[in-house]
Write a structure and sequence with these properties.
Blueprint (H helix, E strand, L loop, with lengths): L1 E3 L2 H13 L4 E6 L5 H13 L2 E6 L19 H10 L4 E3 L3 H4 L12 H4 L2 H4 L3 H16 L3 E5 L3 H13 L5 E5 L19 H6 L1 H13 L6 H13 L5 E9 L14 E9 L2 E9 L2
Parallel strand pairs: 1-4, 2-3, 2-5, 3-4, 5-6
Antiparallel strand pairs: 7-8, 8-9
This protein binds adenosine-5'-triphosphate (ATP), pantoate (PAF) and beta-alanine.
Length: 281
């Protein structure tokens, strides 16, 4: 496995692979890897001859007062996991390598980036789409793999690729969960034991809502039930609970007619957890 710290180094290797007729998949991450990330790597391996994983905690997607400084990091452990998984290259750049002084250009989807998590974290998705565009341009993959856990992020990236005619395919991978249902997330390690136990309320609410969706309940009632179920837990500080069209993220309120996605953002102490579930009528 090669570890690249510069854009030039990753480009050189990708050029050699391409010259040998090989296809390339990219798995962008912020590191502190877990089984969810490894599911993305497995999907990438099934989609291309070569797999590059990037590890970069992107300052541009963190707002003032967010957890950039305390975001969990362990590059050695990450590299060992990626080597064991048979990844070909890891792009592990410094902030200066990605953002040389004087950069001015941003990439932004308009409507999709302002709703939901975009309201809770203003500017967050502009940081994501800007860095993801840069990663796509640096690595030039045939396919890039993202998790459905960050559902809005996945929708925004698909929209960006369509809107800007980016020449690659986007693959989404279902959320990998702990045995009790909690979605794996790098931030889970920052939960206190009490909050870790309480955090199961997200997936429990989503799984219950999935069953309720089959009974003809309206979208507004389902949203209200999920919100109330989470608010009944004294440790959970509900930030948002929404039900949207699964394909477009448009608001819905009446009887469910198409697949819908329930999107949750809940704070436990200082830790913001998100989760989602697509439900079908
Ligand atoms: N439990 C999971 N199952 C599948 N994919 C996941 C899971 N968790 C994260 N991913 C995906 O991994 C990629 C990198 O995400 P990231 O490095 O931010 O990890 P994370 O665990 O979501 O961290 P955090 O939510 O704490 O920022 C994203 O495409 C994300 O959707
Ligand atoms: C896609 C991403 C790697 C961009 O920094 C990040 O938002 C993430 O880890 O989901
Ligand atoms: N997985 C999304 C990255 C972030 O929370 O900033």
């Amino acid at each position: 496995m090669q570890v690249f710290t510069t854009k030039a180094a990753v480009r050189d290797s990708v050029r050699d692979w391409r010259a040998a007729g090989q296809s390339v998949a990219l798995v962008p991450t912020m590191g502190y890897l877990h089984r969810g990330h490894m599911a993305l790597v497995e999907r990438a391996k099934a989609q291309a001859d070569r797999v590059v994983t990037s590890i970069f905690v992107n300052p541009l997607q963190f707002g003032p007062g967010e957890d950039l400084a305390t975001y969990p990091r362990d590059a050695d452990r990450d590299l060992a996991m990626l080597r064991d998984a048979g990844v070909d290259g890891v792009f592990l750049p410094s902030v200066e390598e990605v953002y040389p002084p004087g950069a001015q250009t941003i990439v932004e989807t308009t409507d999709l980036a302002r709703m939901l998590i975009g309201k809770l974290r203003p500017g967050h998705f502009r940081g994501v789409t800007t860095v993801v565009t840069k990663l796509f341009n640096i690595v030039q993959p045939d396919v890039a793999v993202f998790g459905e856990k960050d559902y809005q992020q996945l929708c925004i990236i698909r929209q960006m690729v369509r809107d800007l005619d980016m020449p690659l395919r986007i693959e989404g991978v279902p959320t990998v969960r702990e045995a009790d249902g909690l979605a794996l997330s790098s931030r889970n390690v920052r939960l206190t034991p009490e909050d870790r136990a309480a955090a199961v309320i997200l997936s429990q609410s989503l799984f219950a809502a999935e069953e309720m969706a089959k009974t003809g309940i309206t979208a507004s009632r389902l949203r209200a039930w999920v919100a109330a179920n989470i608010q009944a837990n004294p440790r959970a500080d509900l930030q948002s609970a929404d039900i949207r069209d699964a394909a477009t993220l448009a608001s819905i309120s009446g009887p469910l007619q198409r697949p819908a996605v329930i999107l949750l953002a809940v704070r436990f102490g200082k830790v913001l957890l998100i989760d989602q579930r697509v439900v079908t009528p």
